[in-house]
Structure formats: structure tokens, C-alpha cells
Amino acid sequence: MTVVVSTMAHRVDAQLRLDPSRVIARLFLPGEELPRGRSRAAAVIARVFALSEDEVERVAAQLLSDFSGRHREYAEMLADHASRVRSHLKKTPPMTPARALVMGAAFTAEYAVEGAALCNPSAVLHPNQDGLKAGEARVAVSLRGIGEGHISSIGFASAVVAPGPSWTFEPRAHPVVAGVSTPAVWRRDHFRAVLADDKRIDGLAHSVLADLPTEFTGLDLEQALAEEHQDLLSRAGAQATVDLLRRLVASAYDVAFPNDVKLSQQLLFPSTADESNGLEDARFVRFVGDDGSVDYRATYTAFDGAAIAPHLLTSVDLRAFSAHRLAGPAAVNKGMALFPRLVGGRHRALCRADGESTSLASSVDGIVWGAPELIQAPRASWEVLQVGNCGPPIETDRGWLVLTHGVGPMRTYAIGAILLDLDDPARMIARTERPILQATADERDGYVPNVVYSCGGIVHNGLLWLPYGIGDARIGVVWVALDELLALMTPVSG
Q1: Per-residue pLDDT, 93
Q2: Cα(317)–Cα(122) distance, rounded to whole angstroms?
Q3: In terms of Cα–Cα distance, which of 180, 120, 171, 175 is closest to 146?
Q4: What are the CA-CA distances from residue 57 to residues 52, 62, 168, 426 (Å)?
Q5: How far apart are CA 32 and CA 85, in angstroms?
Q6: What is d(CA 437, CA 413) in angstroms, rounded to the nearest whole number?
Q7: What pLDDT is attached to residue 91?
Q8: Whose CA is closest to 351, among 380, 302, 388?
Q9: Can you tell me the distance from the alpha carbon of 268 to that of 239, in angstroms, rounded to the nearest whole number?
Q10: Hey, which of 80, 152, 236, 356 would disulfide with 278, CB 3.0 to 4.6 Å?
């Protein structure tokens, strides 16, 4: 098949490639790698105690030499990992600091967060604009890294965009620092909406909801369960309901990074059962409230290996984040993208609830989303399989510019655009008839072949900048003159 490449999108030399040296250290329990594996922790502990003190000192020194630069607070982390197997250590003799370090390392393994792939970036104005020249802007870029087992995480990079046009990625700092999650607070009406989506408000769930305060935590849930009548707790299916309630409550969390950790070091790694197989395709937007307040929001897809669930990240500074599950008829599939402000007094989002078309949803609170309204169905040859957005809408004086992706024959991806009415974004007023970006011959190969895909661009000095994934293997960048793009679009009647 001949690939016709549009000349409207201008590629620049800037690229990001996966970096296998970007690693985190995770708790490793030997023998428990598989769901029904048998723990070998006791035997490993015994072998560490059998080592001579000279050997322990040598190994500990080597560990510190080899790995301290690869991990923040490395020795403290090993002590924490050793404490996770404390039940096996209760009857063991006291350990020297060196032996304790080796013990922790025996239960630790590195994980390359982008060892398999790096893809699907989104771009927003960086909260830190210090140290720039006139006409420059710093951009925060979210990245989807994929490691062993196809587990996805959200990482970050930064870039400086300048007139010229010029885009320069700033060096990504080491070591990578995975955020540590803490439980978040739920609203009861939000929790009820999520349960309703799962069609699991049975008698027990209804009773628990009635006993929960307006805002609650996991401790409040446990208190409500402890006070439930035994008749409800002993009914068929009650344990499944209890497990679901606990899992849903645990799916919401907060993450904060230390002030001395740079954005490019930060990593949001799966920390709940909902996202155990990955946080996929974050679409970040800089949201401006009617009162002028600014925060950052992103939708992402949580994947547990069998099911997906749209989630929302919120942050005021891209340093502290809160993650919550979204709810409602529109929040059922991949690819939600938030508008950067209220429209008509309501939150708006693009979604693909049916799996193949672009629709518009609205919400009072930005959490529970109503029924989607169709905007764009697959039509052209390059989108016969499906269409969807390539990130949050961008406001222009002509309308809401939405970058779209289409999937065509041989599952080839291409990027186009549609334009929505500013006041009534359910109305499409123009579209590109042909792609503005397709894979060139040297962009076809990768972790997933024939893919060009983005989760969001940014406009600066009249140019639309779009970082995009190439074959789910590396990140490229293109720019398009905004006026030229808008002029190319074909008006849509009706």
C-alpha cells in the first residue's frame, strides 16, 4: 500500500527514545512471581544469614556502588523492603547494617519502566516558565512508558518551544522516582455512581451507602461493613460485594513528589488493583476555571489485565496528584479528553463510548458524565475502523480545534482534525478531508507498527505543536501553522 504523506505537518529533529536505564526498584518476592507460586522467602532469608560477615560486607559495598546512583534513597528503600518480610525475620538474630542491606536487596528487583516502548505523549504549558528567553515557552510532556509484561506508567519530560520554529527537549533527569500513593477521600454520590456503572448496588451495597458519611475514606467503609447486619453479610454474593466495595475505595489515591525531584524524574506507576496492568494514554489539559483558577487535569485508562476504567488525575502544580475513577454513561471506554474550561456552565469532554466514534459528554462536577452525543463517525478511507480524539480540544477564534486519529486498512493510524462550534461543541463545523500526519516509510516499524498517535498538542506563537508516538517506540514532534490548518478544513453543512 502506498502511503501518501501530507506536507502540512512539518517534522523537526527533536525526538525522545525509550531509555532502558530509567528504572525503579520494586519489592520482589521469590517464588510468588506467578499467581499460585510458592513463597521461597524463608529459604532466601536462611541463605543470607548463612553468608560470612566478610562476604556480606563485600556484597553490601558492591550494591551501594552499583545501585545508589540509580535509585533515590537506595539504602532506606532496601530497609523498607526487608521490613516487608518481617514475619519471616521474627525469630532470626539481629543483623549488622551490611547484612540488613543485603537482605533488603534479596527482595528487590529493578524494573525498566520504558524498556519495551515509549509512546502517546500529551503537551501542556509547564507550570515553571523561569529562565526562558523572549518568545520561548516551556512545555510539560506526559509520556506513556511500557515495560516488561506490557505494564504502562505515566512519565514526564519537558521541552522549550521557541519562534523559528524550534522545539528542544530538555534532558531527562535521573534517577526515576515512583510516587508513593496514600488513600484519597471519596464523595458518597460519586461512589454511588461508580457502583451504578458496575450494576452492583444490591441490598448490601445499598445499606453500606446509607451508612457512609457524605465524604469518606477506607476506614469509614470498614466501619460501615463492621456494623452491617449479619443477614446481609451472609447472603449469596455478599463477599463479592464486599470485595468490590473495598477495591473501588482503594482505586482512589493521592501522590506527591518531594520538591527536589524534577518533573522528568516523576513516575506514576500502577498502585491499585484497577490499574495493576497499567495507566494508559494520559491526556493532560491546563484547565482554567471561571474564577481564573488554574489546575492540571488528565484522563487516563486504568487497566487491570481484563477490564478498563477511565480515571481522572488532578494537580495544581504537576507535583502532587489525586487520582479518581470517572463515572456515568460516557465514562466506559478509552480516550476521554477534557475541554480546557467550562462551556455553557458545564464540564465538557470528548469520548468514544461506542469504541469507534467521537462523541461529546457533559458533567456538572467533572466526575460523573452524562449520556454521550455523537459528533463524528468513521467515514473516510483512512478511518474506516474507528475515529477518536488526539487530545483535549484547543480553543481558537474559529472554534474548538480537535486533533483526531483515524484507523484504516492494515490498522494504519493517521491524524486529522475537526472543528467544533465554540458555544455548541456538539456541532461540528469543519473537518480535514485528508490526514495532516501519516507514518512515513521510516516510521512504520515499532512496538506497534504503522502507528502515529498523540494525546495532545499545544499552540504557541501561531503554531500548533504536536508531539506524537511513532510505532509506539519513540516520540517525534511536528508543527503546523494554525491559520493554514484552519483554512484547509472543509466546512460541514448542517
Answers
A1: 85
A2: 16
A3: 120
A4: 9, 9, 45, 67
A5: 13
A6: 9
A7: 79
A8: 388
A9: 31
A10: 152
Pick the closest to residue 456 from 491, 488, 417 (CA basis): 417
Question: Taking 80 as the threshold, does the pLDDT of residue 1 lie above it?
Answer: no
- Looking at residue 266, what DSSP letter applies? E
DSSP string, 142-196: EEEEEEGGGEEEEEEEEEEEETTTEEEEPPPPSS-EEPPEEE--EEHHHHHHHHH
pLDDT digits (tens, 9 = 90+) for 417-439: 999 999 999 999 999 999 999 99
Instruction: Write out the three cell numbers for 319.
Output: 507535583
CB 235 within 8 A of CB 205: no
CA dist 262 and 128 (Å) reads 11
- Report the phi/psi class of residue 483: left, alpha or beta, with left for phi > 0 and alpha for psi in -120 to 50: alpha
> Residue 109 corresponds to which cell in the numbers above?
528487583
> Among 191, 247, 181, 248, which Cα is nearest to 214's?
191
- Give the model confidence (pLDDT) of 34-46 as tens digits: 777 788 988 999 9
**Residue 177 is placed in which grid cell?**
522516582
Q: Rounded to 10 degrees, what is the CA torsion of 263, 403, 371, 287? A: 40
Each residue's pLDDT tens digit, 435-457: 999 999 999 999 999 999 999 99
Distance (Å, whole) CA 300 – CA 154: 9
Q: What is the model's pLDDT at position 494?
A: 63
Residue pair 74/68 in contact (Cβ under 8 Å)? The answer is yes
**Taking each helix axis from N to C terminus, what angle separates 74-83 and 97-106, rounded to the nearest 10 degrees?**
70
Cα–Cα dist 426/345, whole Å: 15
Q: What percent of the chain has pLDDT over 70?
A: 98
DSSP E strand stretches across 179-275: 181-183, 186-187, 215-216, 253-256, 266-268
Percentage of the chain exceeding pLDDT 90: 88
Q: φ, ψ for residue 267 (rounded to 5)?
A: -140, 130
* Omega cis (within 30) before 393: no
Nearest one of 110, 109, 95 to 51, comparing CA atoms? 95
pLDDT digits (tens, 9 = 90+) for 195-252: 999 888 899 999 999 999 999 999 999 999 999 989 899 988 999 999 999 999 999 9
Distances (CA, A) of 341 to 87, 288, 347, 457: 51, 5, 7, 16
What's the grid cell of residue 53?
560477615
For every residue of 28-88, which 3-state class applies, written as one string? CCCCCCCCCCCCCHHHHHHHHHHCCHHHHHHHHHHHHHHHHHHCCCHHHHHHHHHHCCHHH
Categorize the per-residue pLDDT at 85 as very low, low, confident or very high, splitting at 50, 70 and 90.
confident
Grid cell locating 264: 522528568
